[in-house]
Amino acid sequence: MAGVALVNAVIFGVYGETRRHIPDPNSLSSCFVSGALAGLAQSPICSPIELAKTRMQLRTSSNETQFSGPMDCLRYTYKQEGYRGVFRGLNVTLLREIPSYGTYFLTYEVLTRTPDNAPVSTAYMLLAGGLAGTASWTVSYPLDLVKSRIQADGRRYAGLVDCLKQTVTNEGYSCLYRGLSSTIIRAFPTNAVTLTVVTWIFRLFGQHNDSVAATNQGEKVVKTMESVGEISGTREPFLEKWNNFLTSMPERMAIHRLPYSTSTNELKLERLVNKENERRTKEEVKHGREEGEKRRVSREDVENLEELCEKKVERTVVKTVNTVSMALA
Ligand SMILES: NC(=[NH2+])NCCC[C@H](N)C(=O)O
């Protein structure tokens, strides 16, 4: 359970962080690359977890010691085989996770892109999420099979290539896809729910994408700045914050896909910063403030704040996804 939580935190964390720092966050290749990096980052965590799962599943009660849980199994493996044993199959896990998470996020992005950026329906999101999971497992399944065999009994094989050779020679190519249907039966609903929930959180908590009406985006940034007291200098009372949240719901609902992106529409942002500064000047004239007391918003303020908001949203995403995956596990 803790492992699942960590894996999700790493996946969505790394995916978001990469897309934020990649030159063209909205291109399809950047979705693939960010997904691939997320897959790479989570492999060292998921590899020992899967090793424990595989070994526990293969234990037969009569002749072998039973493990009380995955940690017990890993401790035993460490005593018997050292770190090499615990991380057995990590290389194949990496080879499986890099393309599969790339495919996973790319498929979801491709399927939820609409020409006029109209939001997709929840039913469609569920379908896209399910298909993303299915596609990711289909491309990586033979490697998953090899990985499980190596993890179950590493001493039988000299490595990935040897395991592949032995498998194909003894059982034919078709065996590389053995068990794929059961995997998809699990992966379709799990990933349908996961990606839909993630998208909904982004919609509700308003992380915008540059394809969304740029005015909304800029205004949201200034609104957020107001709400955290950056602009007015005071903290907005909770009720007011909640009311603002509710009134902006229709606008928030207009966001779709996984909207990781910081590329705010430059012109609009500039305009908003100017507008806010004009407003401040007027206030200052009205209140006859001294030169030294004058405060101005800068582009950096807006950008820093935007990043801060994205991080907050991301933490919510991770928490919710963890809850969902635990409920489904
Ligand atoms: N083969 C993969 N790792 N695909 C990526 C999707 C993974 C997803 N968490 C699942 O378990 O279905």
UniProtKB/TrEMBL annotation:
One GO biological process term: mitochondrial L-ornithine transmembrane transport
GO cellular component: mitochondrial membrane
First and last residues of every Solcar repeat: 26-114, 120-204
Membrane spanning stretches: none
PROSITE patterns linked: SOLCAR
Family designation: Belongs to the mitochondrial carrier (TC 2.A.29) family.
Protein name: Mitochondrial basic amino acids transporter
